[in-house]
Design goal:
Blueprint: E1 5-9, E2 16-22, E3 30-31, H1 36-40, E4 60-63, E5 68-71, E6 74-75, H2 76-82, H3 85-94, H4 100-111, H5 120-125, H6 133-147, H7 157-183, H8 196-205, H9 216-228, H10 236-245, H11 251-263, H12 270-283, H13 288-296, H14 317-333, H15 340-355, H16 357-361, H17 368-378, H18 386-406
Antiparallel strand pairs: 1-2, 2-3, 4-5, 5-6
Bound molecules: carboxymethyl coenzyme *A.
Carboxymethyl coenzyme *A (CMC) binds near residues 303, 308, 310, 362 and 369.
Length: about 425
Amino acid sequence: MADRTVTVTDNTTGKKVDLPILDGTNGPSVIDIGKLYKELGYFTFDPGFVSTGSCNSKITFIDGDIGLLRYRGYPIEQLAEKSTYLEVCYLLLYGELPTKQEFDAFESRQRMHTLLDEKMRRFYLGFHNNSHPMAMMVATVGALSAFYHDQIDVHDAENREIAAKRLIAKMPTMAAWVYKYTVGQPFIYPQNNLDYVSNFLHMMFGLPSMDYKPSPVFVKAMDVILILHADHEQNASTSTVRLAGSSDANPYAALSAGISSLWGPAHGGANEAVINMLEDIVQSDNDVNYYVDRAKDKNSGFRLMGFGHRVYKNYDPRAKIIREVCHELLAELGDDNPNKPLFDTAMELERIALSDDYFVERKLYPNVDFYSGIILRAMGIPMNMFTVIFALARTVGWISHWKEHMSDPAAKIGRPRQLYTGSDERNYVEINKR
Ligand code: CMC
């Protein structure tokens, strides 16, 4: 029996059950309701998992009330300032920061896996010209299982390890190739002497006909974006990966399910909505106050995109970091870049909203999507690629959670119950009598 329990009493029958309270390292404790059905004959009901923990995890901790995010215990601020995305990948996957030797070995192993099977090229060529890049990502990541079917034994730790490395290493190549396909440019192969982010930018923006050298400011900005999006505990897409993987589906199929979940505008698509809104404001002769007033008017049905957050009721810690990067990047780009009016509007909106009582009282700060959309636009990345970049960053989070689930001896297939509200039993009626 746990030290602390909660007693649930059925007021109809008088039956009682003591449910153990489990404490984590940080965050609210949980009530273990596992024996509720057996003892009292009830399921619990919590659509949207508002009060329900779906697993225990050692990977990421969020405290939305104070605006805190930690990967494996390390504050996101320290990682964004001092680490690199690839080092964060190691941390999320293995739980500890690597020594120099461990990192070098990890990095060189990653570099060995950047190429796609050459037959994958034909797979891309089958897509319609104007296919959405996320549609291609769902399909091509799922297709990897057809190329590695001899190494997808999910109960073999070595097979899980190789799948993790392959996915992290190949994701930049796959993301860049869907972009190249949509713009009708030749696929650019990875160059393994480049670091992870430079290699990605090289495959995105390089051409066989001319040299491409990514600007160090872009490389740093992209590295920070990837770090900030690498994990966010049991969000919709990560929970999807865990649930898909819980049936022992192979990791490529489970990640493809996660990418599908991320695609939805309520999850990965918000930074695209920010740019659409900013473009509307610019086209309206830059009437920022009109949009702020509309957002404050409950009858308008309009909200400022990129403001507010379901979990963070304080400044989103990722937004604080990315705001700095965004300001540095815009300063570096200077006045003669074509997106200047859009950026000016964004900065004006940020200034007004941060000082307006409506937003201050409701703790509606700009969120990570407000700035990531602007940064990606500044780098010349088209809007339909924004969620692909998110998927690239989140791959390590998904695969770390999948590995955690698969290596837990107590893990079970995920199988929620329901409150059935359909028809009671009724008899079949012949078609001519209905
Ligand atoms: N603009 C204007 N008013 C807002 C906004 C906004 N963006 N967001 C919330 N409010 C108001 C809302 O009307 C309500 O006012 P009142 O208390 O007077 O009724 C109050 O603030 C609380 O709103 P809520 O809907 O209860 O807040 P929520 O936590 O359920 O919603 C949200 C969070 C992100 C859905 C919402 O803030 C929103 O729609 N934001 C705009 C879309 C956006 O930027 N989404 C990206 C979120 S980050 C994604 C990620 O981390 O992956």
